[in-house]
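Our working data are protein records whose layout never changes between entries. The record below serves as our worked example for the rest of this section:
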Amino acid sequence: MLRIRVVKTASGANAVQVVYYRNRKRFIFKHIGSASSSNELESLKLVAQDVINNFNPEIPLFEETKLDNLLYLDKIEFLGVYSTFLYEVISGLISQVGLDRIQKQLLLDLVTIRIVEPASKQRSIELLESYFGIKHRRQSYYQSAPQWLLLKEEIESIVVEFARRNYAFDFDLLFYDVTNTYFEGRMQGSKIAKFGRSKEKRSDARIVVLAVVVNREGFLKYSNIFEGNMADCKTLGGIIDALSIQTSSTGRKPIVVIDAGIATEDNLTMLRGKGYDYMCVSRSSLKEYHADTSATPVQITDKRKQPIELLKVRANGDNDQYLWVRSQAKAMKENSMNGLLSQRFEEGIQCIQEGITKKGGTKKLNKVYERVGRLKQKYPSVHTYYDITVCDDGNGLATSISCRHKKGEDPGKQAGIYFLRTSLMKLDECTFWAIYNVIREIEYTFRVLKTDLDLRPIYHKTDDASMAHLNLGLLAYWLVATIRYQLKQNGMNSGWREIVRSMNTQKCLTTSVVNIERQTILIRQCTEPTKVTKAIYDWLKYKYVPFTRKKSVGTPAEILKNDSP
């Protein structure tokens, strides 16, 4: 018959045992544990009683019964939550692309965390530990970052070769554009940070120009960084020289698609001279043109079902092909803007008139003309539709000013009309329009780089640190573009932040619990992915969980809270 026995140990604790007697000798059936308090003693007695109640006489008394699965529920503790799966997916993609060949683990980890949550380098190192349990020294970044600048060409060749091999990209159609990002700091003495035309309207800050070349799927082919005072149109020559001559599987040079700001006559002449075909928006509206003899008007609709009219035309004295485009949505926008600008221009003229008539106002004729000139400079798109008359008294003083619309001039007639230009002569209207509109992909590229990957603004104080920051963002974009392309092939067109949010919902939980034998058991288990996350894993060909459950047993001293097991 089994009984409960409590005995004092040498340490002063109470040991609880299940014992039985045979031939007046006592045998220990099971040692339950040692209690240092009355509550623990009562818990151990309940366990011992449970052992006695469930004892099967048919089981030999000397057979060892496993009790290590009996746990103290009041000693369960959650040690950490990690986004292991997101790291596993991005690490797998890094290996798939072949970027692990550069053997710079800190660089690749910083790229990973920039994709997940962009932050400063110091903060990124902290996030790597809190998100994934990966530790790096901050000093390692400052020691290694200058060396990473030398990896740009090697990384570009690895990624482009991966795209050609796995996605059959031949880069026969390339889209080129530039953007800029500003510095939050003086950057005095910098060779790249200069004052220039900021696209973010930050005329008070120095900027740097980022030029990128992407294919029709938004995959980065080439990138470069220019000084902030470099004009957009001056960057194309260096980019074209840097591109490889053999850029397609057929050996044919690619078609270069550029925006109006870069499509100067000098640049187009340069492209023709180097054997490149091109497509762009005409920088100026054609004055003398006629419809192509083989062309017929074509009407299509945009994404919002607004009509767009297309017609191939030829310009007098020009060998290029032009596409006349009239967009109803663009016309409405331009008419609205012109109406507002015309109203402000007329208010400006009225303000000058009030200055002439009131006491102490601007009356000198030369000063009045200066004010008119500044007003025209402020509203260049509407002042040409007005006749402005200034009357004076013959002694150098203005007496009145008036403006009226020019006869026969109607800005609404040209609203919504622009021209596309190309050196390709055998394109139909719809193909012409479709090719050019892919340039919107490069706009998404800039949006991801500057917003989702946080390249704007730059807080670094040296050129090397700034270049490392920009190249880190470009490397992250390559991985983003790869994931986006695979998902878009399956019909998922969500923004990058939404994709990260979905994948980040799956976590890895680490739990600590003490069993009846006072051993600390550490359990790591994956949460179940959501329906959307499962779909992403299916399309990327990843497992739902990298492991089902991991269990390790040790003494309490071996386990440190918040450490990844």
Remarks:
- The longest helix spans residues 328-357.
- The first strand starts at residue 3 and ends at 8.
- The mean pLDDT is 83.
